[in-house]
Amino acid sequence: MILAENLVKEFRRPKRAEGRFAGLRSFFSAETITSRAVDDISLRIDDGEIVGYLGPNGAGKSTTIKMLTGILVPTSGHIEVEGIVPWKDRRTNARNIGAVFGQRTQLWTDLPLRESFDLIAKLYGLDPVDYRRSLDGFVDLLDMGPFLDTAVRSLSLGQRMRGDIVAAMLYRPPVLYLDEPTVGLDVVAKARIRDFIAEQNRTAGTTVLLTTHDISDVEQLARRVVIIDEGRILYDGGLESLRSRYAPFREIVVSAVDLPEDTDIPGLTLTRLLPVGDELRGTFRFDPEQLPAPAAIGRLTGALEITDLSSREPNVEDVIHRIYTDRGIAP
Q1: Chain centroid to CA 122: how far?
Q2: Where are the beta strands (DSSP E) in the chain?
């Protein structure tokens, strides 16, 4: 559905002169500075996949999506979305994609939400009966009835985001790009939007490329993640493979009255120790390939007088944080 090969996007800006009359000399200078936002990225996303596209600010996520939508022309490389080169045939590509940019709206702010949807239906030439059926289903799924006749400018952020996602899906595009769709939303609004995206993927087979800083979005929606930094891909694969590759350990959190900092238990490493009330809470890390979990728990209970114990796997946020901070990992 989405194919990108050796994708590069560079931006050029005038080089600013220094010293006296710097602004005037910069205006007449032909010197430029080139920055590479996307550096040789190759992606293949199959029909019906939900892919999390992750990276820190400035990594090149939004630039990639803008090239896939046809907004930007790549400096070099090749893109196809359902067989169409986006920037060469923007009109056809626009009918095949939906796009939501969390910081911007595609709705008419002075119109009621319902009228914005009516205009989009006319722009895309939707059959009135099909349009009403689709809209009723979307309104029901996202609980939009109470504010459907409210002006867009008067909506809360969560209500407006739900409206933007429906606007992107009204004409049933096979591809949906979501750039920070849950930014700034409360827990309830996030849950509604995640459920809606999952439902559209399940029932309509919509292919979704999702950029987000909320790792919960990825954990609940995507089975595959692509992590980029400085315009290059660091990782492309499944969530479980990501955990096993970059965090091949588990953790046991114990509470005890007496828990010395120099506690030495074979096969376990004390990584964190915090006072909690009258007790101490310690986090022990172990490799399940070397020491099975029951054996690790047995060693802890045999060495310490434990009042509480819980086991957990490293979450995706911990793993990704480790990738970002460990610059020694090769792409």
Answers
A1: 31
A2: 2-14, 32-45, 50-54, 76-81, 97-101, 175-179, 207-211, 224-229, 232-238, 250-256, 269-276, 279-286, 306-312
pLDDT tens-digit readout, 247-304:
778 889 999 988 888 889 999 999 889 988 888 999 999 988 899 999 999 999 998 8
Which residues are CB-neighbours of 158 under 8 A, at least 6 positions away? 185, 186, 188, 189, 192
Nearest partner of 324 among 225, 213, 227, 183, judged by Cα: 227
**Locate tokens 């930094």: which residue?**
229
189/123: higher pLDDT: 123
Q: Exposed (0-12), middle (13-18) or buried (19+): which is 249, by Cβ within 10 Å?
A: middle
The model's pTM: 0.78
**Res 209: pLDDT:** 95
- Residue 58 CA, chain-centre distance (Å), reads 14
> How far is 325 from 329, CA to CA, in rounded Å?
9
Crossing angle for the helix pair 187-204 and 157-169, to the nearest 10 degrees: 10
Identity of the amino acid at 276: V
Angstrom distance (rounded) from CA 295 to CA 177: 46
For the beta carbon of residue 321, count every other beta carbon within 10 angstroms: 13
Burial class (CB in 10 A: 0-12, 13-18, 19+), 202: exposed
Q: What is the pLDDT of residues 132-184, one digit of tens each?
A: 999 999 999 888 999 999 999 999 888 998 999 999 999 999 999 998 888 77
| Residue showing tokens 């954990």 | 219
Tokens 């070099």 belong to which residue? 76
Q: Which amino acid is at 29?
A: S
d(CA 27, CA 277): 65
Residue found under tokens 């376990």: 268
Across the beta sheet with 279-286, what order do the strands follow? 269-276, 279-286, 250-256, 306-312
At residue 328, the pLDDT reads 47
Q: Give dist(CA 87, CA 94) in Å, integer.
A: 10
Contact 181, 210 (CB under 8 A): yes
